[in-house]
Design goal:
Elements lengths: L6 E7 L13 H8 L10 H10 L5 E4 L4 E7 L4 H13 L6 H13 L11 H9 L13 H5 L3 H11 L4 E7 L3 H11 L20 E6 L5 E9 L7 H11 L6 H9 L5 E8 L4 E9 L4 H18 L3 H17 L4 H13 L6 H9 L3 H11 L5 E7 L3 H12 L3
Parallel strand pairs: 5-9
Antiparallel strand pairs: 1-3, 1-4, 2-3, 6-8, 6-9, 7-8
């Protein structure tokens, strides 16, 4: 990307709660935190941060259920130095000040608990209900109990398992390609390895209804459906279905619940595909008095898409917006690095143009087929966090029954 004035470097790898057990849940996320705590050349969190900032970068990191990312953006003249720094962080963390970082992660976990120590974060709880007893349902941060058990031995074991040659280094921006290739080859000298083996979750056998009592002023309502995985033939159609439902304030979800009826302030939809399965989520936060009406509207929207699919106008707009977003990505080396790194990690042979071509071939029937496959009661987990009384519980049960 020679016309840009920055270079983005990202490292994608197979790490996250999907590869954990109930006993070590959260260790991958804790390891991500500990990677900021220094290397042999920069033996403290402050020294390491200073090394990155002196070349114009700040080390960013994130852990998801099935992958992790380290990322930096730098001026072009700093690309060699930052690749060498990233390689050292990946290869030789010293795990300094474990208890200090444990305290930071503890505060992060506390954000999802109420005053009595119960988990009340709706999005985390939904995954537990959609994937019961499976690592995809584990909290990415782990629990206070598991966090307390992690030490140098556990961190080293996790690091040895995940930080191998089975990772992807992506560089995007204005740089000399031969020089970057040489720097990456010289700097990233990792041991051989492969992605950890995983097991697929069992069928949900829904509808699974779960209520968590919480004394907040609103009730959080979440519909979580099992959905196609990342390599499923229906994945592109499911992405288009998501865009029909929630991609701007003119799409169905916001228009129906907010514009027309004024039932909610905050509504959203999400599609999260994994290697062998996925989650399609509909989310709304509303006053207790509106909850039954919101649930009815969500079921009606799902039923209409199952029965009739989207309109041609909706599909045309969804494709156009996807095209604009993929084109706009060319202005951002960080977004380009993220796109290519993720695709390479999961073996998805696609460029932005190839991705757009997947959507161009899809018509109303394909998106309707995706809706019929996803919006089923036997693949649904319905979660409420807040206030729920017997009458509203019956309303929710009746509404869900319409999806069969």
């Amino acid at each position: 990307m020679p016309s840009t004035r920055t270079v983005a470097v990202s490292v994608h790898l197979h790490v996250g709660s999907r590869y954990e057990s109930a006993k070590d849940n959260g260790i991958c996320h804790f390891l991500e935190h500990m990677l900021h705590r220094g290397t042999a050349s920069h033996p403290s969190a402050h020294a390491q941060a200073l090394a990155f900032e002196r070349v114009g970068a700040t080390l960013g990191a994130a852990t998801y259920a099935d992958h992790g990312v380290l990322s930096v953006v730098v001026p072009p003249e700093s690309v060699t130095e930052v690749i060498e720094l990233l390689a050292e962080v990946c290869q030789a963390p010293i795990f300094d000040a474990i208890d200090v970082e444990r305290g930071i992660v503890r505060e992060e976990i506390l954000e999802s608990l109420d005053a009595r120590g119960r988990r009340t974060a709706p999005d985390d709880l939904l995954r537990e209900v959609v994937f019961p007893g499976h690592p995809l349902g584990f909290p990415i941060t782990g629990t206070l109990k598991t966090l307390a058990s992690f030490g140098r031995k556990e961190l080293s074991r996790c690091h040895e398992r995940h930080y191998t040659r089975d990772l992807v280094v992506t560089v995007a921006g204005a740089f000399s390609a031969p020089r970057v290739r040489r720097t990456v080859a010289r700097s990233f000298r990792l041991p051989p390895g492969r992605a950890p083996r995983v097991r697929a979750p069992r069928p949900l056998r829904g509808p699974a209804l779960c209520h968590v009592r919480d004394a907040s002023s609103q009730t959080a309502l979440r519909f979580g459906f099992r959905a196609p995985g990342i390599k499923d033939r229906a994945e592109p159609a499911t992405e288009l279905l998501l865009r029909v439902i929630d991609d701007g304030t003119s799409t169905r979800l916001y228009h129906r619940l907010c514009d027309e009826r004024g039932l909610c302030y905050d509504v959203s939809a999400l599609y999260e595909p994994h290697a062998d399965t996925g989650l399609f989520e509909l989310a709304a936060d509303c006053s207790y008095a509106h909850m039954a009406a919101v649930a009815e509207e969500l079921v009606t929207m799902c039923t209409e898409l199952k029965d009739h699919g989207p309109s041609d106008d909706e599909l045309d707009k969804a494709r156009a917006r996807l095209g604009w977003q993929l084109d706009a990505m060319s202005d951002s080396p960080a977004e380009v690095a993220a796109f290519y790194g993720f695709a390479e990690l999961f073996g998805l042979p696609r460029t932005p143009a190839e991705r757009l071509a997947q959507f161009a071939k899809l018509g109303r029937s394909a998106v309707r087929a995706a809706a019929r496959r996803i919006f089923r009661a036997d693949g649904l987990a319905l979660l409420t966090v807040g206030t729920l009384r017997a009458r509203e519980n019956k309303t929710l049960t009746r509404a869900v029954a319409r999806l069969r």
